[in-house]
Amino acid sequence: MNPVVMTLLLAAAWGLFAWQIFRRWRLMTIGPGENRFDQIGTRLRRTWEYAFAQKRMRRYWWAGIAHQLIFTGFVVLLLRTLVLWGRGYSEGFNLWVLGLDQPLGKVYSFLKDLFAVLVIAGTLVFFYYRLVLKPARLSKGFEGILILLIISTMMVADIVYDGASIVRDARAQGGAVAFHGVEPAGSVAAFALGGLSDGAINFLRHAGFWTHSALVLIFLNLLPVSKHFHVVTGIPNVFFQNLSPRGRLPNVPDIEGKLEREETLGLKRIEQLSWKAVLDLYTCTECGRCTDQCPANSTGKLLSPKQLTLDLRDYLYKHEKALVGAKGTNGQGAEGAAEGGMAAVSGNGELPELVPDIIKPEVLWACTTCGACETECPVFITYVDKIVDMRRNLVMEKSEFPAELQNAFRGMETNSNPWSFPASDRAAWTEGLDVPRMAEKPDADVLFWVGCSASFDDRARRIARAMAQLLTAAGVNYAILGEEECCTGDPARRAGNEFLFQMMAQTNAEILNNYKPRTIVASCPHCFNTLANEYPDFGARFRVVHHTEFLAQLVAEGKLKPKNRIDAKVAYHDSCYLGRYNEIYEPPRDTLRAIPGLTVLEPTATRDRGMCCGAGGAQMFKEEEHAREGAKGERVNEKRTDQLLETMPDMVASSCPFCQRMLIDGLAGRGREDVKQFDVAELLWQAVGEA
Ligand code: SF4
Ligand code: SF4
Predict the structure, then answer these.
(1) Fewest Cβ atoms closer than 10 Å to its Cβ: which of 25, 85, 419, 435?
(2) In 517-654, at which residue ranges do the beta strands (DSSP E only) sit?
(3) Is there a single domain that holds both residue 177 and residue 124?
(4) Angstrom distances, CA of residue 562 to CA of 462, 468, 469, 515
(5) What pLDDT sits at residue 341?
(6) What is the DSSP letter of 437?
(7) pTM surpassing 0.85?
(8) Residues contacting residue 429 through CB under 8 Å, at least 6 positions apart
(9) Closest ligand to the CA of 386
């Protein structure tokens, strides 16, 4: 069409894009390194499933389908764009296999037209979302609309170019415009344009061509400065996703040494973010799905995972010069920037600490670590690790944390339980039952890990008693640690007191390694998760199962026979650390269904969309954060209770002593003490034991 214009356009656009990418790349390299090049096969499979097939996107059905159409259309039209750029130099240019005289070219031409139309359909869905539905989860502003306008105009321009070309060719051959099956959209456009003069056709051909070619390049350069940077970073972010068990928080190595050397503990400054964490920030699509599912946000707290990501991202961009400059001047690379050079920049007062200047402490302390945000994010951005890491800095370096947590920390330290009950009372729940200790029976097949709640809390002790009786009834060769058991340290770790957590983990690991149990059965999902997913980092590698899995197996094997009827409808609540983190959904339901007369009800928010009870992330040991300005504040447990009550149950069941406490309080808060709360083990014992 015009080689000079095309050359200038391509050189300017690609040059600018390369410069922008270089800047983003430089920012990614200021922090510490992180190895995300393991398990390549799994990474490739998950990239196919979640980046190309966009499995998670469809959790929001219409938006997911529309996005899939636009994404696939972009992939298909990539070659078309190359062809058009080539035609800037030579009118008849085509990639050889894509010529219309080639079989593959015919197929491609048809697909290209089809997807041009489907992409327009996809943009219409998003226009409807943004202009009519306006869901609160989407970011406000014109950027989203502008991008939709650019995408739809590119597609229309392409179809107009094809249509005008068909008319021109038909006239050159002295024939009438005919329908070309391999160019359906272009043919329809040709019929529509058929009545125009040669001059108008020529103008539209050029306008379509240059509009498409130039808009692609404008779009390209908008990417790095907009939320649409995910077009570039989304696939890599999915590829480099965290593949370690979901319930495992990153370890802090050599914590005692760090304390002695007075090194920074936890996430304090932006330059401590690894390249992968920065890639997370670049990749946020601002879809708001994370915030939409966040129990803290939906009950009016200040926390919004999306906003947290955006605040960190904007801060990073804002201080690009200082961050990159410091790295350049000290010449120490990533580690140096974190430990030396950046401290100098920060020391000058140029870069404030993340908390409280960029992220308010109330935001961090509102998180229940439920993982709903991470389950929802279509591009696998993580938040819990960042939130806990910022808590670590507040707790271990600054001693700044909600006052109530001090009691829990002290209790774990001195009495090995967060409530400070005397450690000697840990096995008091066994009174009247014949429950063996590991010290007396070191060759027991099963170690029943009771946990602090079921050891000390009056109500939760009934879970421990039910479990002990069920294990005895099934003839399981089991024992408990009794007074030797300590809190796993889960609340300390999630609250940011990594030092305390590691102390408890090391103590427990030593005890466990002394007995080397073949199987550990834990009745608390928090204990279960920590023992199964985090203790291997401390040398304690054992087979750990949750009590609902173990009970379901005993029922399936006929070792437990539920015979007593419980004629009731029970709404089942999934614990986050059992369900979302460890994907244990069926065993508790199977056990409940095995009880004669019992009907299991599912709330609308269930399984991996189940709402948190509000106890996780050490919330159990502190007051809930205040509601943000203008929001209707609500307790998380009461909102969850409402969801369960919507099913009109006679009773509510769960598989976690923390959930049990929160739901009992929730039912009381709603004046519904008539609806009783039970653990799955309690209900099974009612059905199995002597009636
Ligand atoms: S983990 Fe749960 S509470 Fe925390 S930000 Fe994510 S959704 Fe919200
Ligand atoms: S963090 Fe993920 S889920 Fe949240 S807005 Fe960004 S892309 Fe969407």
Answers:
(1) 25
(2) 519-522, 543-546, 568-572, 598-601, 651-654
(3) yes
(4) 18, 16, 13, 33
(5) 36
(6) B
(7) yes
(8) 450, 454, 455, 461, 464, 465
(9) 1
